[in-house]
Structure formats: C-alpha cells, structure tokens
From TrEMBL:
<dbReference type="InterPro" id="IPR002860">
    <property type="entry name" value="BNR_rpt"/>
</dbReference>
<dbReference type="GO" id="GO:0016798">
    <property type="term" value="F:hydrolase activity, acting on glycosyl bonds"/>
</dbReference>
<keyword id="KW-0119">Carbohydrate metabolism</keyword>
<dbReference type="InterPro" id="IPR052025">
    <property type="entry name" value="Xyloglucanase_GH74"/>
</dbReference>
<comment type="similarity">
    <text>Belongs to the glycosyl hydrolase 74 family.</text>
</comment>
<dbReference type="Pfam" id="PF02012">
    <property type="entry name" value="BNR"/>
</dbReference>
<protein>
    <submittedName>
        <fullName>Sialidase family protein</fullName>
        <ecNumber>3.2.1.-</ecNumber>
    </submittedName>
</protein>
<keyword id="KW-0326">Glycosidase</keyword>
<keyword id="KW-0624">Polysaccharide degradation</keyword>
<dbReference type="InterPro" id="IPR015943">
    <property type="entry name" value="WD40/YVTN_repeat-like_dom_sf"/>
</dbReference>
<keyword id="KW-0732">Signal</keyword>
<keyword id="KW-0378">Hydrolase</keyword>
Length: 709
C-alpha cells in the first residue's frame, strides 16, 4: 500500500554535535546528529537533506564523526554507532550520501554517548584520500588505507584504550585526528596530530613519520583534556581543552595554539575574566582568511555561552555574544522555555565557510545558527539554518476528535499543538512547563479538554507535573495532587503518574501510588476504590461514566461505571491468564489498552505482541492481530488500524482495514528512519492519516497515495 510520508515541521530541535563544510565545493555542508542520522545541505534547494532515512539499523542513527573528502566533493564518510555494545560501522558514499557502502568495524562508536561533541575523530589524509584514521573511544587509534573497507589498529600509538566501559558510562578516548596539509609528500602526509580525552599525563600527540611513531606534546595542565582540534594550511594546530568530555559537567578549559615555535596558551582574556567557567568545544579556522580563528564555549552558565573571534591567530579576541541578535521567527518553538532566544547551549559544532570567511555557523542542543556578518563591526544577526532538519524524540501524541489534528509530547522540548503541520509550532506547553511530556489524553466528546503529565530536569524547581487545558492545548493550568503516604509526600512530583480524562472532560484520574480522581479541576480529590496504585486508567471515548484499567498483577480487566469512583473486575473471556505483557515498560510507554474514538465500549488490548478486541465494554475479547507481532498500536478513521510490528520476517509500519485480520505494509525501504519508533496514532477525522513519532528523526504524518479524505 503506497503511502506518502512527510515530516511535521519543528525545525531541528535536537543536539547536533558538529557541522562540516566540504573543502572543495562551495555551499556543500554536512551535519551530524546524536540520534537522528546525518544531513547534507542542498545549496540549490536551500534546505538540508536527511541521508539515512533508508537505514534500518537503529544504532547507525547515532553519528559520532563525519569527514568530507578533501579532493572529491561527492565522497563523504560517517562513523555510525549509538553507543558501546551496539553495532558500529563506517559508512562511505561517493554521491553525497545518496547511497552508502557500510563496513561494520571492530571498535565501538558512541554517537549518543557523553563526549559526542568531541572531534572530529574521523580524518582523511589530504595527500592520500584513501587513507583514513579514526580515534576510538575505547580501543585506541585505527587506520584504513583502502577508503574505509578494512581497518587496523595503529600499533605505535601510545594510548591503546581503556576497554569497554561499564553500562551508562563512557570514555573520551582519542578525541580528534588531524593530518598536517603542510607535510605532504605525494604518498601520504608525514605529520599527524591526535588528541586524547581520557585521564592521563598527556593529551596531545604528534607523529612525524606518517603514524609509525608518536610523541607527547606538552600543553596545559594534565587535568584538562584535548577536546576539539583544527589545523591551518601552514600546519598550525588549535586545540580546545576541557575538564570533562561534555556536553555537561564541564567546569573549566583553555585554548592553545601549536606551531613550529611550540605550544602557547591563547585563551581569550574574556574567558579568564569571567572565571574560566565552561570550556571550548568549538574551534574553527577560516581557510580563505588565514589567521582568522573562532572558538565557542560550552557550559558557561553564569556569563552565558558565546563565540570569540580573532583575526591574528589568537593574539587578540572579540566577544561576539554582546553584539549578537537572533531571529527565530521561522522556528518559534525555540521559545518553549518561556525566555528569549539566547545564544544557545551545548555549543560544540562551530565552522567557518571555507569559501566565505564572513559566514560562521554553530550548533546547539536545539538548533543550528548561521550568520553572514562576520565582517561587520556592529550588530551580528543570526538565524536558524535548519530547513529540512527534524531531529527530535517524540514520546507521545494524540489526534483528538476536535481542535488541532495533532498534539504532541516531546522529550526536552515539552510538546506542541500543531495548528499547521508545515510550520514550526508556537510554544504553549507552559504552566506547568515540563521538559518532557510523558502522557497525553483528550476527552472523547469534549476534545478541547486535554490533560498531560511530564517530568522536568532534576536541577530545576517544579510545582506540578500535571496540567489540563480547556482550549485544545493553547493554554494550560497546573494540577496539584495533595501529599499522600506516611510520611506525606508529593507523589505527583516524581513525574511517573499518567493522567486520564473522561469522555465529557469532567473527571481526571491520576495514576499515583495511591490513585486519585478529581471532578472539579483539582480543587478536591478522591480515592478511586478498587484501582491499584500506579495503574493507568483508560476512559471510554463516548460514555463519560466508564473507565477501564488492566490489573496486571491480578491478571484481570477492571472497569468503572460511575466515573472512576469504583473499579470492579470484569468477567472477561478470551484473554490469557497472564496479562504481564500489558505492563508498561516505563512512564513514557503507550498504554496497552486503547478505547476507540466514537464507539462506546470498544477496546483494544495489546498483550505482548498479541492484539485483542472487545466490543462489549470488556466482557468478551477476541484475538485480532492476524499474525502481526504488534509493538505499537493506533486507531484511525472508520475502523482503520495502524501498527508498528513484525509480520513474518518483515518489520515495519502496517495498516488494517478489516479489524486486524489482514495487514498491508505502509512504510517502505526508503522510509525506515533507523526503525526507532516511539508512538503511533491514526487521525479520527482524516481517512487513512497516520502520525508516527520517532526517537531522533522527528514526527511524521502519512497519507495513502490517492486516498481522499
């Protein structure tokens, strides 16, 4: 079944650790992201093109390094792998990323690990482009002499690696590799530099014999790690140092220049004057204007992150921050935290266009900014350079029966009401503002009433993690659940409690350890009898008195006919005795129990990969998956069902028009997005419309080709 898939526009939205310009073709640039793959800028179309939408290996969407060939504009390499213990590969393309040769490698790659802003780890010898080097996190320095097809460990490199780290930890490893273009021989560069971001006595090494032997190069205090490096045409090397691999927890840093006279501290005085807070994870040189250097800070909380610019190899510096102005009118979502467009956070990608020294770009944890005004003495104007980039993690979404067709819950960005799918949304998920929206629900017959639950970064104060809206999500009010337990505790502030709203919007039920319900918008609360703690209730989408819940421990379906005041077991037939497969994996997981919009008493229950349906309020169930092993389920208009799952040996996105008896695949081999799917839902008002939330490639909507509304 042919479907057309389109990104819902946000405009970037996630962490892009670095951006790399092609040194041989004007206007050609590549962007790497930590969990959404790589992008290429198409100068003719004036937009970014995703390069890995056909990838079906989840780990390969984490890009740790990118290298553009110094001679051939069509050739580009990616170091792909999400984290240690996950598959890793070097990808090579000769057509600007339209197609890839994939070479699995024996070393781990950490595209989504701490330290992903270091680099670049992957480097191409400009004197012999078939020679590549890769600085691994855990296993030393590696080399390929056949364009990435085969790799061997560099035996002479003194830092051999620390081995695979413990779970949820990481190593910095060999943080960058630089071939000296001034040391060409015609058969390979003789001088090579490598930085190291693991604890030790030395953090910078140089080889003068093509990588056979290496010597340590003295720099700042051994407490500072070599984080980012750049090399000029004359062989001068600029190194940004940091106390930690980042992007968080960086306390201090320094900037050094190394040339034939030795190493020298060229840290901007303004950085020192403000307490040397944070570090330098962005270092860029202007190829067309020798001596021009730019550096960016990261984790400079008190003074704010900034970019410094030097025209004389770091002898004197200008702080661009105070004279910078940002226009985010094309991506207003950036104002989601309720403050103006600041300089940005997690700035680790910084680049000067090799063909235009006026053009400087930098990446943040949420966007990419660009300016053409480095030659100006006054105000420097910046704007997001993100058209085509959609790099977000969607946790949950709903398509209500009225109001906006799509309301989403994001990781890090809170969530949005999507009035239009082709424009970046205005922020509205405030009061309370929550960085993550974990659950959303709407009232089936009063769809402008919405409820949400979420969580906030641990270092920020919170008064509520629950909210409700009466205008379709355009404005919100917090819900505060009174303390419970002994000693009394605000269990709702933990951020684990899902919230549900009745069909008429009059009753809210919260899945705290001692469940609570309110019928007066949180002014008073009651305890639902018979509903186990931490159990998410599901409201019938038509009958406001009816709620349902799965008691996994008791192996039974529960129902309420009095607006969630009392829950009693349903004598259900057709279900297995073991309901553990309906238990949520975490607070962000979709509910295994779903009520059909517009149909009273119709329920769908996923137990593991099996799908069951009831049309009589849960009394009788029939298995209806048609052999599809279901992972995610969504309901659309006119009884259409959408699912993510496996049929036979084929994993994909599926549609059924006969209540699950038969399924047609609606994705294809060009649209797999790493198979990193989080949530799916049909549109109850548009025939065949489906919404899909990914973990890193943003939010999509799909329409069947030729199907009318």
């Amino acid at each position: 079944m042919a479907y057309r898939w389109t990104n819902v526009v946000v405009g970037a939205g996630g962490y892009a650790p670095n951006i790399v310009f092609s040194p041989v073709e004007r206007g050609l640039a590549y962007l790497r992201t930590d969990m959404g793959g790589a992008y290429r800028f198409d100068a003719k179309a004036r937009r970014w093109v995703p390069l890995q939408d056909d990838n079906g290996v989840p780990s390969y969407m984490g890009i740790e390094s990118i290298a553009a060939d110094p001679r051939d504009a069509g050739t580009v390499y990616l170091a792909a792998g999400m984290a240690a213990r996950l598959p890793a590969a070097i990808l090579r393309s000769t057509d600007r990323g339209a197609h890839w040769w994939i070479t699995p490698v024996p070393f781990a790659v950490g595209g989504n690990e701490p330290g992903r802003g270091l680099g670049e780890r992957l480097a191409i010898d400009p004197d012999r482009p078939a020679t590549l080097m890769f600085g691994s996190r855990h296993d030393g320095l590696w080399r390929s002499d056949d364009a990435g097809l085969h790799w061997a460990k560099v035996a002479g490199f003194p830092v051999t690696g620390l081995g695979t780290p413990a779970p949820r930890t990481s190593h910095g490893g060999v943080s960058f590799v630089l071939f000296d273009p001034s040391s060409r021989t015609g058969s390979g560069s003789r001088r090579i530099w490598a930085g190291v971001a693991d604890p030790g006595a030395h953090h910078l090494y140089r080889s003068d014999d093509g990588g056979q032997s290496w010597q340590a190069v003295d720099g700042p205090s051994p407490a500072l790690l070599a984080a980012k490096g750049a090399i000029a045409a004359d062989g001068s090397v600029y190194v940004g140092y940091a106390s930690d691999i980042g992007p968080s927890n960086v306390r201090t840093g320094a900037l050094w220049r190394f040339d034939r006279a030795g190493g020298r501290d060229i840290t901007p005085p303004g950085f020192i004057a403000t307490g040397s807070e944070g570090a330098f994870l962005g270092v860029a040189l202007a190829r067309s204007a020798p001596g021009t250097v730019a550096v960016s800070t990261i984790n400079r909380y008190r003074a704010g992150d900034t970019v410094w610019l030097s025209r004389d190899r770091g002898e004197h510096w200008s702080d661009l921050g105070p004279r910078s102005r940002r226009n985010v009118s094309a991506t207003p979502f950036l104002l989601h935290e309720g403050k103006g467009a600041d300089f940005g956070h997690w700035i680790s990608g910084l680049a000067i266009d090799p063909f235009d020294a006026r053009r400087l770009v930098y990446t943040t944890g949420a966007t990419v900014y660009a300016t053409d005004g480095l030659d100006r003495s006054g105000t420097i104007d910046w704007a997001p350079w993100v058209s085509g980039i959609e790099q977000t993690a969607i946790i949950t979404l709903i398509s209500p029966t009225g109001g906006a067709h799509l309301v989403s819950g994001f990781g890090d960005l809170a969530g949005f009401v999507h009035e239009r799918l082709d424009r970046s949304p205005q922020p509205s998920f405030t009061d309370p503002y929550l960085s993550n929206t974990n659950t959303l629900d709407y009232a089936g017959t009063a769809p402008l009433v919405l409820v949400r639950s979420g969580s906030l970064y641990a270092d920020r104060p919170r008064d509520a993690t629950l909210g409700w809206s009466g205008d379709g999500g355009r404005s919100w009010r917090p819900l505060v659940v009174p303390p419970m337990g002994t000693p009394p505790r605000r269990e709702d502030l933990v951020g684990e409690a899902a919230i549900t709203v009745s069909a008429d919007g009059g009753t809210f039920v919260v899945a705290t350890p001692e469940p609570r319900l309110t019928r007066d918008r949180g002014r008073s609360w009651q305890v639902p009898e018979g509903l186990p703690g931490n159990t998410r209730a599901v409201a019938d989408k038509v009958n406001p008195a009816r709620f349902y819940a799965v008691d996994v421990a008791g192996g039974r379906l529960l129902a309420s006919t009095d607006g969630a005041r009392h829950f009693t077991p349903v004598a259900s037939t057709g279900l297995p005795a073991d309901l553990s497969g309906a238990s949520p994996r975490n607070r962000e997981a979709q509910s295994a129990l779903v009520a059909t919009p517009g149909v009273a008493g119709e329920l769908w229950l996923r137990i593991g990969p099996a799908l069951y349906r009831s049309t009589d309020f849960g009394h009788r169930f029939a298995r209806v998956d048609g052999g599809l092993a279901v992972e995610l389920l969504g309901l659309g208009k006119g009884g259409t069902i959408f699912a993510v799952g496996t049929l036979g040996q084929v994993y994909g996105i599926w549609r059924s028009d006969d209540l699950g008896r038969h399924w047609a695949r609606i994705d294809d081999d060009a649209h797999r997005w790493g198979r990193r799917y989080r949530v799916i839902a049909g549109d109850p008002r548009i025939t065949g419309r489906v919404y899909l939330g990914t973990d890193g490639r943003g939010l999509f909507y799909g329409d069947r080709v030729g199907e009318s509304e």
